[in-house]
Design goal:
The structure is a single chain. The protein is of the alpha/beta class. It folds into two domains: 132 residues, 2-Layer Sandwich (VC0802-like); 168 residues, Vaccinia Virus protein VP39 (Rossmann fold, 3-Layer(aba) Sandwich), CATH 3.40.50. The protein is built from nine helices and 14 strands. A hairpin with a 4-residue loop joins strand 6 and strand 7. Helix 1 packs parallel to helix 5.
């Protein structure tokens, strides 16, 4: 039976976000491991953290055993490139380890335009050798270069991972109720979601529209009030003001929360503090919470289902 090794990478400060994506996008529980095996290929192309998927030809607890197996069983490889890869805090897989396989491999190499790429990697318990069948373009990195931005904009990685999690939960139509410069709109559109981005400030709506145009993405952009906007959707997103320099209206925030929960099946409310109690009073059920640390603040991500609504 075929097995596939899925490889990811993330920095320590992104641990909680990574675990959220693993839980909902890849059904791996709340795991911080940077890899998992599966009997089928799971798509990592949309992930914020994906590296590659490897069709495992052979794995072994010993590099010597792996080498011997390749010597006796690996067919001739045509126009391939070989590479080694170290997974996060797992033991290093070095170039010298890859070179130790050269005497037993039968192949023709093509470094500039290979037909296939074969990878050697390892974990604490096993060595792996196999063919790369998928990789992740990590589009969010390019999205950070959007022409219009603001200092308080939500990180693209956070927007992408949270939207991907909701997409895997079945969401198709999403409303961002305070779009700002359009980070959620950009990531949602790139994930193929039906995005609507609203903001009370027409300058913000114009920024969102310009950024979407820059990447050739499509989303509905409207100058509307999040308190009264009544369009229905699978998911509602609100990134509330937080930090030392953000002007806030607490009464308005409560009205926005109530409207979002009433208008959507699920929602993501991002706040500078835990607002679970008010969410529950407003008809929402917090089914998960994640705290994302930053330099001077913490972002509390509340994942919500509207009560008595079947998703």
């Amino acid at each position: 039976m075929k097995n596939y090794l899925h490889i990811f990478k993330y920095h320590h400060e992104d641990t909680e976000l990574y675990k959220l994506e693993q839980k909902y996008a890849f059904a791996q529980g709340f795991s911080d491991l940077r890899y998992f095996e599966s009997s089928s290929v799971q798509s990592i192309e949309e992930s914020s953290f994906g590296v590659a998927v490897i069709d495992i030809f052979y794995k072994s607890e010993s590099l010597d055993d792996l080498r011997e197996h390749l010597k006796n069983n690996l067919p001739f490889l045509y126009e391939v490139r070989l590479a080694n890869y170290s997974i996060g805090f797992e033991p290093n897989c070095l170039l010298k380890d890859l070179r130790s396989l050269f005497p037993v491999l039968k192949l023709t190499a093509n470094l500039s335009d290979p037909k296939e790429v074969y990878l050697l990697t390892r974990t604490k318990s096993h060595w792996y050798f196999g063919r790369k069948v998928s990789h992740c373009p990590q589009l969010w990195i390019n999205h950070k270069l959007k022409p219009e931005t603001m200092s308080s904009a939500i990180p693209h990685m956070l927007a992408r991972s949270s939207l991907l999690s909701f997409k895997k939960l079945g969401a198709k139509k999403v409303i961002d109720y305070c779009s700002g410069s359009g980070t959620f709109a950009i990531e949602g559109a790139s994930l193929g979601l039906d995005m609507t981005a609203i903001d009370l400030n027409p300058k913000m709506t114009a920024m969102t529209r310009q950024n979407l145009k820059h990447f050739n993405y499509e989303a509905k952009t409207l100058t509307e009030n999040a308190v009264t906007f009544s369009e229905k959707a699978d998911v509602g997103i609100v990134d509330f003001p937080y930090g030392f320099h953000c002007q806030r209206d607490l009464d308005e925030e409560k009205l926005i929360i109530q409207n979002v929960i009433k208008s959507t099946k699920m929602s993501l409310l991002i706040h500078g503090e835990d607002i679970s109690e008010f969410i529950e009073k407003s008809g929402g059920e917090v089914f998960d919470k994640v705290i994302i640390p930053s330099v001077n603040l913490k972002r509390h991500l509340h994942l919500i289902r509207t009560k008595n609504v079947s998703v």
